[in-house]
Amino acid sequence: MSAQKTLSGRAWAELMLLSAIWGGSFLSIRVALDEIGFVTSVAHRVVWAALVLWVVVLLRRLPLPRDPKVWGAFLAMGVLNNVLPFSLMAWGQLHIETGLTAILNAATAIFGVLVAALLFHDERLSLRRGIGVGLGFLGVAVAIGLGNLISFDLRSLAQLAVLAGALSYALASAWGRATLAGLPPQIAAAGMLTGSSLVMLPAALWLEGVPSFALQADTAIAIAYYAVAATAFAYLLYYRVLASAGSGNLMLCTLLIPPVAIVLGALVRGEALLPQAYLGFVLLAAGLVILDGRLVRRLFPKMSA
Questions:
Q1: Structure confidence at residue 298 as a pLDDT band (50, 70, 90)
Q2: Residue 6, by phi and psi: left (phi above 0), alpha (psi -120 to 50) or beta?
Q3: Distance between CA atoms of residues 100 and 82, nearest Å
Q4: pLDDT tens digit string along 40-92?
Q5: What separation in angstroms does the CA of 42 have from each of 108, 138, 220?
Q6: What distance in Å separates the CA atoms of residue 105 and residue 143, rounded to the nearest whole number?
Q7: 22, 183, 253, 265: which has the fewest Cβ within 10 Å?
Q8: Model pTM greater than 0.85?
Q9: How far is CA 58 from the centre of its chain?
Q10: Which residues of 179-210 are buried (b: 16+ CB within 10 A; e: fewer)?
């Protein structure tokens, strides 16, 4: 069995930066949702990000792919990595706290490891990684609370929508590795966001009408942040780490997202989470640490990867 890919110091730094940027995106999205619909918020995110990235592509004079199959892969990647998760999570944020959304989003790492293990021979599920996955799912269950699932109210549906978005992210990571390997990250990101824009712009116009650009200042700033910083720039990092570290390791960046989102949600919006949410995140974080394996191998050097 091939060994799990290891992360270089540079890859770790990029993962931490990506986590901080995406952690702030949860707050900015929630701020925008106070004034605009969730479908329109996603359309803003992908359209503006796509335009920014195509400017980058033009400035660098990167050659465009000519194979129609590549453009089809961009469309599929846009649906899996943007349309579905962005929409599901934005809707979910209307009904649950910013910090809880980020905690449930961290299940992306767990789903990512499972999907990668099923599809890629170099990311198979060892005993250690299986323990990490199990502990991670336990953390998700604790964060949601079995009582919430039994009641199955709007809040429960919102949490399940966020988890469905996390699964879509994991599938997108594997799809990107399988179909977009070797492409410059600027091209891959711009193509993906173009594909998602082709879906989200008509959807927003149809469901929520022509968007207004007479927005409050905080809404405009929020859109600029999550479109340019948390999407255009972040996906340049996303594809770099995907190529160097593998889809399973890429999902580990979600470990650092929830603390950022929780702190920002508390400071800016006065959000408070139930103790079970924090306990769930602790269990989920422990599972992610076990999945990464570095600390485990340091403490138990004879343990298999």
A1: low
A2: beta
A3: 20
A4: 999 999 999 999 999 999 999 999 998 999 999 999 999 999 999 999 999 99
A5: 19, 30, 14
A6: 11
A7: 183
A8: yes
A9: 27
A10: bbeebebbbbbbbbbbbbbbbbbebbeeeeee
